[in-house]
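Researcher: Next entry in the queue.
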Amino acid sequence: MKILPDIETMHAELTEWRHRIHMHPETAFEEFQTSDFVAEKLESFGIEVHRGLAKTGVVGTLKSGSGNRAIGLRADMDALDLQELNDFDHRSRIDGKMHGCGHDGHTVMLLGAAKHLARTRNFDGTVQFIFQPAEENVAGGRVMIQDGLFEKFPVDSVYGMHNMPGHEVGSFAVRKGPIMASADFFEARIIGNGGHGAFPHLATDPIVIASEIVLAWQNIVSRNTDPLQAAVVTVAQINGGHTGNVIPADVVLKGTTRAFDPGVQDMIEHRMRQIATGIAAAHGAKAEFTYDRRYAPTINTPEETEEAIAAAVELVGSAKVNRNVTPVMGAEDFSWMLRERPGCYIMIANGAGEGSCHVHNPNYDFNDEILPLGASYWVRLTERILGPEAN
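Model: Structure for this entry, 391 residues:
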């Protein structure tokens, strides 16, 4: 690995920052201490700091030279509602919350790059360091966009990075086109007519109707989706009834859908609504259906992905960069930024073997070994796009 020497000397400092953030995890739109820490560090580097987008978001603006090009580099800051089971010294100090997805490491890698770039300024243009809240569950990236992120902090392209457990340190993975799926969430309330369990003919049973709807929804994947496309329809909750001899008046279904193609997203929503209302009506009941498009598909644009690949190859070599990683059905709200600007979302390996585990696990911990590599990636990407070689 060709980690930048200046960043390698910062390794202990970056680790200290990461442990501090890990010990004080904060969840969606409550990242007050974390955003204070980020803003304080950026200001100490001499970077202009802006706060308030999506409540706890932080944007640092660094200009060098006279160029009018600009890029955005994004890191997420929030933690999970999860009880940490690790027993090391930097474990979470907040009961029921932990950095179980590595956003503490993402934040620190970008801070390390910001410190280096502020010192060297080996680029011509503007870098927007975007520290985003609320990636988990509520799509803070969408809120930043709604709050005018790119109108207030214009960029020509935008880049994100996530750690990838289960892969050896010193490697990256990426692909052009879809790399992560959409994540939409639905709720259907089936309203029937309750009654005595012994006299079903005098009721309109929403449980039977809901069961028929759940099964019919599965046909969306097998019979409405192009076999060469991908889709998921998952009913994760069925709530209705209070006792064994009473037919309830209503039943609520909740779940999630996934797709890589926006057209498939459209089709899923349309068919789910059509099926729910149609089956309910056929049984003399009513269906109330809501559908929340919370995470768009994460779709990397070709030219920007090539820049990301080139920066990664400089650091770890061509053999250590997977250019066609298999896309996953997990979702990422960086997708909302990619809907507004071209860019690329890349994976950095977090380590494999004994002691490693996947994200969202109570025993997970970000691997401090990759902090300098991730920071070096951000620097080389910036210098490639805005540096003299780009001219």
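Model: The chain has a mean pLDDT of 97.
Researcher: Noted, moving on.
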